[in-house]
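User: What would this chain look like folded?
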Amino acid sequence: MRLVRAWNPERWAPSFVAIWGAEAFSLFGSQLVQFALVWWLTKSTGSATMLAAATLIALFPQIAVAPLAGALVDRWDRRWVMIFSNAGIALSTIALALLFALGIIQYWHIYIAMFIRATGAAFRWPAMQASTAMMVPQKHLSRVAGLNNSLFGLASIVSPSLGALLIEVGLPMYVLLTLDIAAASLAIVPLLLVRIPLPKRAEPASARTSVLGDLREGLRFVFGWRVLFAILAAAAAITLFSQPAITLMPLLVTKHFKGGAIQFGGLQSAFGFGVVAGGALLGIWGGFKKRMITALVSLFLQGVGFATVGLVPSTGFAMAVGALGLVGLMNPICTGSLFAIVQSTVPHEMQGRIMSLLISMATAAAPLGLAVAGPIADRYGIGIWFLVAGIAMMAVAAVCAMTPAVRDVELRGAPAHLRRSAAGGPPAGS
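Assistant: Here's the prediction, encoded as structure tokens.
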């Protein structure tokens, strides 16, 4: 009897759900640990600059490692990429739990753990997204993207609420961290039992270019498709302003609203409730006929929510909760639609590289925003960043909606010469 079951495209759902469900548990554990570590840093330092530094360290792998990770994901067995990524995350959490248990934890220990966890995610995320495009029929991609975002939202509800409760009752950090260790370990089990289909390459492995050659091919695809590059530039502009706001949310709670872990968990849970509802809505509805219109409308409404948070007074905590609920509701509809566009227009053999490059290049704008946001927020307050992020989102959505090439990206698809090149054929004019 074979231990690893071969992939059956006619019975894709049970195998996909097994892998998806295990990754769900891993996500819950990761969100719980992320909440606990951020809150520990917030209470220990009370510094926006320290929080910004922690976020910069966690973002660095997404910027520097993710492009290379995407190229490797397209060459390696994606199942094993996810196995080793989950294992690395679990090992880093074990080390962190031991440091807390021994009472010798330092800030730099937290930073190193965040870096390792983010590096694991830089491999795991594109591997899962690229695998999804191979496992799920194209007609169901938008719905699966919606369910993925519902899962993220559910984790954003349960993990902060549970984390806040466990912190308030005095559960030691090292005990809390063991929950993530168990979740990451559980995510490995179905990956050991189900073989994920791999894309067919036009040429044998021995004839392929190097990893750096694959990366250059991915960059040529992104820069050669002007519409995709325009979408990337828009995402970078949004990240430049929104990432600092998200990073500094704990200090918005403690300094602006004068709250604690429960209030912080409440804000994150409001966002999570919105994400669950938005993901479920996208999963059932599927969006407008043009996925890009769905993405742009939801992006504009996210901007409204962010701007509202930035404008509410210190006595308006309930209004901030509602505004973040709106942001959460629109977030999966926007991101799910965009991911479905990429998954349906980018060749399967390049999905890992393109997904990683898009995330990496968009995230590269975050350090600039964080470098400025930390010191200024320490001096002038947090709310300004939410307002600026909201205005930026609304402006980007409006500009993209008025640009026909972006608005009609699915109808036009990738340029023919890029599709031929990705398939291993000769480029145009050769």
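The chain has a mean pLDDT of 76. If you want, I can go into more detail on any region.
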